[in-house]
C-alpha cells in the first residue's frame, strides 16, 4: 500500500509542477499582456452568460450596470455573455423593452463561444462539478478576450472568482441569487430521500449515498473556497444570505441587496379603496374582498385559504358581506385539476356564493382587483421571497402572509415600530387575523397601509442602486500599489 501512495503523491506533485503551474503562468502572462495593451481606462466586467434571458436576474444585471454608469461615468462596463446569436443593440433593446431600463451605449459586450460548457444537460453525472469546471473554462475565454480591473459575477458562477482574482489580478465581487449547493441539499441526500437532486437509485443504496455525500461535502468545501475569493458578496434575500454564510463562512463581507422589483404600476393605486360595484359590477355592491393571487401550484396551499375563510365567516360579524376572490395562472392540466379539487372543496363547505376563482386574468384586471380588495392572502410556506406580498403592500391591500421564509424575514417587517402586515400559520391563526384586520379602526388601518407602502419601497430600483453601490464600493477603488 505504501509504495502505491508514494507513487500517487509524486505523480500528483509532478503533474502540478510540470503541467498545471506552467499553464497557469503562461495564462497569467497572456492576460497581463492583454491588460497592458488595453490602455488605462478602468474596466468593470459583469459575468452574465445568459444576459438576454429577460428574467429577474437580468433586471438585477441591467440595474447594476446602469448604477455604475450613472455614478462612475469614467468607467467602462463590459458584459460577458454567451448570447452569440444576438447583437449588442438587440440585447440593449430587449433590456429597454422588457424592463424599461435604458443604458448608454458605452456598455461593451464580449461574446463567448464556450457557453455550452456550463449547460446542465452536458453533464448527466456530477452535474454540479461539471458545470463549475465548465464555468472556469468559459471564464478563461472571457479573461483572455478582455481582462477587467473589477470582476463581478452576477449569475452565481463562483468558480470563476479565483480565476479572475489570481490569474486576472482583478478585484472581485459577486451577486448571489441562489446558492449552487445548500445545506438543504446535503440533508436530502443524508436522509436518503429521493428528490430533484437525488435519484431513487442513489437514495436506495447506502454505499451510493455515502459516495454522494463525500462528493457533495467536497464540492461544498470547494464552493466555499471559491466564494471566499470574492471581496464583496451581495445576496438577494435573507434566505440566500443565511445559506451563503453557512457554506462560505465569510459573514464579514456578505450583505443583502434586495433585487429591484417593478412595483411602480401598483404604487399608482390609491390607498382608499374604490367601491367594489364600480369595478366588479352591481352584483358585488358593498362586498368586502379578500384577494388571493397565486398560480394554482400545490405549494401555494389554496385549500388552506378556503378553510381559513370558512372559519373566519363563522367568527365574523356579518358573513354576508365577505367574499374571497382567488386569481392566478393555470399553466397545465395539473393546475386545472387542482382548480377542480378546490371547487369541490368550496361546494363541500357550501361556499359557492362566497368564494370565486378566476384563472388567467390580465394585468389590467389584476390592478383593478388590487384597487378594491382590503386583504391580500398568501399561504405558501418557506417561500424564498414572495413578490406577491410586496405587490399587496404597494397596492394598498393589507397583506396576510405565512409566517416563514421571505414574508417573515424580509417583507412583513415592522418599520419604525409600525406594523406592515399580518402573519399567520394555520387555519385558526389565518381566520383570526382576518377578523382582526376587519375590526381595525380607520386610523390604525391607515397607519398600517402607510407603513406598508413605505416598506415596499425597500424593493425599488432607487434603493437597489443605493445599496448596490454601497456594497461594492470597496472593490471599485484600486488596490494600493504596495499590496
Ligand atoms: C433570489 O433569487 C432566487 C433565485 O432566482 C429567487 O427564487 C428569489 O425569489 C430571489 N429573491 C428575491 C428577493 O427576489
Ligand atoms: C425526508 O423524507 C422524510 C419522510 O418523507 C421527511 O420526514 C424528512 O423531513 C425528509 N428530509 C428532508 C431533509 O427533506
Ligand atoms: C391559461 O393560460 C395558459 C397559457 O398561458 C394556457 O395553457 C391555459 O390553458 C389557460 N388556462 C385557462 C383555464 O384558461
Ligand atoms: C406557515 O408558517 C409556519 C411557521 O410559523 C409553518 O409551521 C406552517 O406550516 C406554514 N404553512 C402554512 C401554509 O401556513
Ligand atoms: C397547507 O397548510 C396546512 C396548515 O399549515 C398544512 O398542514 C398543510 O400541510 C399545507 N399543505 C401544503 C400542500 O403545503
UniProtKB/TrEMBL annotation:
Cellular component per GO, a single term: endoplasmic reticulum membrane
Topological type in the membrane: Single-pass membrane protein
Keyword Transmembrane recorded: yes
Pfam families in the record: ALG11_N, Glycos_transf_1
EC number in record: 2.4.1.131
Subcellular location: Endoplasmic reticulum membrane
Domain ALG11 mannosyltransferase N-terminal: residue ranges: 42-248
The protein's annotated pathway: Protein modification; protein glycosylation
A GO BP entry: dolichol-linked oligosaccharide biosynthetic process
Domain of life, source organism: Eukaryota
Alphabetized CDD domains for the sequence: GT4_ALG11-like (cd03806)
GO molecular function, one term: GDP-Man:Man(3)GlcNAc(2)-PP-Dol alpha-1,2-mannosyltransferase activity
Catalytic activity: an alpha-D-Man-(1->3)-[alpha-D-Man-(1->6)]-beta-D-Man-(1->4)-beta-D-GlcNAc-(1->4)-alpha-D-GlcNAc-diphospho-di-trans,poly-cis-dolichol + 2 GDP-alpha-D-mannose = an alpha-D-Man-(1->2)-alpha-D-Man-(1->2)-alpha-D-Man-(1->3)-[alpha-D-Man-(1->6)]-beta-D-Man-(1->4)-beta-D-GlcNAc-(1->4)-alpha-D-GlcNAc-diphospho-di-trans,poly-cis-dolichol + 2 GDP + 2 H(+)
Chain ranges passing through the membrane: 12-32, 123-145
Domain Glycosyl transferase family: 282-445
Keywords: Endoplasmic reticulum, Glycosyltransferase, Membrane, Transferase, Transmembrane, Transmembrane helix
Alphabetized InterPro entries for the sequence: ALG11, ALG11_N, Glyco_trans_1
Entry-linked PANTHER family: GDP-MAN:MAN(3)GLCNAC(2)-PP-DOL ALPHA-1,2-MANNOSYLTRANSFERASE
Function, as annotated: GDP-Man:Man(3)GlcNAc(2)-PP-Dol alpha-1,2-mannosyltransferase that operates in the biosynthetic pathway of dolichol-linked oligosaccharides, the glycan precursors employed in protein asparagine (N)-glycosylation. The assembly of dolichol-linked oligosaccharides begins on the cytosolic side of the endoplasmic reticulum membrane and finishes in its lumen. The sequential addition of sugars to dolichol pyrophosphate produces dolichol-linked oligosaccharides containing fourteen sugars, including two GlcNAcs, nine mannoses and three glucoses.
Family: Belongs to the glycosyltransferase group 1 family. Glycosyltransferase 4 subfamily.
Name under which the protein is recorded: GDP-Man:Man(3)GlcNAc(2)-PP-Dol alpha-1,2-mannosyltransferase
Species the sequence originates in: Ciona intestinalis
Lineage: Eukaryota, Metazoa, Chordata, Tunicata, Ascidiacea
Amino acid at each position: 500500500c505504501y509504495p502505491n501512495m508514494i507513487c500517487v503523491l509524486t505523480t500528483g506533485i509532478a503533474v502540478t509542477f510540470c503541467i498545471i503551474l506552467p499553464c497557469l503562468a503562461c495564462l497569467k502572462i497572456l492576460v497581463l499582456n492583454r491588460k497592458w495593451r488595453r490602455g488605462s481606462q478602468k474596466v468593470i466586467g459583469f459575468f452574465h452568460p445568459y444576459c438576454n434571458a429577460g428574467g429577474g436576474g437580468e433586471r438585477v444585471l441591467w440595474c447594476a450596470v446602469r448604477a455604475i454608469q450613472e455614478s462612475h461615468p469614467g468607467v467602462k462596463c463590459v458584459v460577458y455573455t454567451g448570447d452569440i446569436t444576438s447583437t449588442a443593440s438587440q440585447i440593449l433593446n430587449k433590456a429597454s423593452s422588457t424592463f424599461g431600463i435604458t443604458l448608454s451605449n458605452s456598455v461593451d459586450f464580449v461574446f463567448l463561444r464556450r457557453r455550452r460548457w456550463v449547460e446542465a444537460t452536458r453533464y448527466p453525472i456530477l452535474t454540479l462539478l461539471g458545470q463549475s469546471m465548465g464555468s472556469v473554462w468559459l471564464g478563461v475565454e472571457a479573461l483572455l478576450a478582455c481582462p477587467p480591473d473589477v470582476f463581478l459575477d452576477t449569475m452565481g458562477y463562483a468558480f470563476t472568482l479565483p480565476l479572475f482574482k489570481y490569474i486576472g489580478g482583478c478585484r472581485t465581487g459577486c451577486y448571489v441569487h441562489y446558492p449552487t449547493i445548500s445545506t438543504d441539499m446535503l440533508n436530502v441526500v443524508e436522509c436518503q430521500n429521493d428528490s430533484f437532486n437525488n435519484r431513487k437509485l442513489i437514495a436506495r443504496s447506502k454505499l451510493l449515498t455515502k459516495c454522494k455525500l463525500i462528493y457533495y461535502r467536497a464540492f461544498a468545501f470547494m464552493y466555499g473556497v471559491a466564494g471566499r475569493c470574492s471581496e464583496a458578496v451581495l445576496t438577494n434575500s435573507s434566505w440566500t444570505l443565511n445559506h451563503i454564510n453557512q457554506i462560505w463562512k465569510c459573514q464579514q463581507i456578505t450583505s443583502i441587496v434586495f433585487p429591484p422589483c417593478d412595483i411602480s404600476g401598483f404604487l399608482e393605486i390609491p390607498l382608499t379603496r374604490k367601491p367594489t360595484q364600480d369595478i366588479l359590477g352591481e352584483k358585488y355592491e358593498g362586498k368586502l374582498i379578500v384577494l388571493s393571487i397565486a398560480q394554482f401550484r400545490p405549494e401555494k396551499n389554496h385549500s388552506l385559504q378556503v378553510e381559513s375563510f370558512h372559519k373566519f365567516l363563522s367568527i365574523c360579524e356579518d358573513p354576508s358581506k365577505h367574499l374571497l376572490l382567488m386569481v392566478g395562472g393555470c399553466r397545465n392540466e395539473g393546475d386545472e385539476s387542482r382548480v377542480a379539487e378546490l371547487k369541490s372543496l368550496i361546494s363541500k363547505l357550501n361556499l359557492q356564493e362566497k368564494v370565486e376563482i378566476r384563472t388567467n386574468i390580465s394585468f389590467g384586471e389584476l390592478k383593478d382587483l388590487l384597487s378594491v380588495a382590503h386583504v391580500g392572502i398568501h399561504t405558501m410556506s418557506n417561500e424564498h421571497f414572495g413578490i406577491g406580498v410586496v405587490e399587496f403592500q404597494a397596492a394598498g391591500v393589507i397583506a396576510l402572509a405565512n409566517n416563514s421564509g421571505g414574508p417573515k424575514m424580509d417583507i412583513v417587517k415592522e418599520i419604525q415600530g409600525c406594523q406592515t402586515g399580518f402573519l399567520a400559520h394555520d387555519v385558526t391563526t389565518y381566520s383570526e387575523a382576518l377578523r382582526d384586520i376587519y375590526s381595525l379602526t380607520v386610523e390604525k388601518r391607515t397607519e398600517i397601509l402607510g407603513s406598508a407602502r413605505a416598506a415596499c419601497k425597500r424593493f425599488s430600483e432607487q434603493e437597489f442602486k443605493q445599496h448596490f453601490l454601497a456594497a461594492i464600493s470597496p472593490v471599485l477603488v484600486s488596490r494600493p500599489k504596495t499590496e
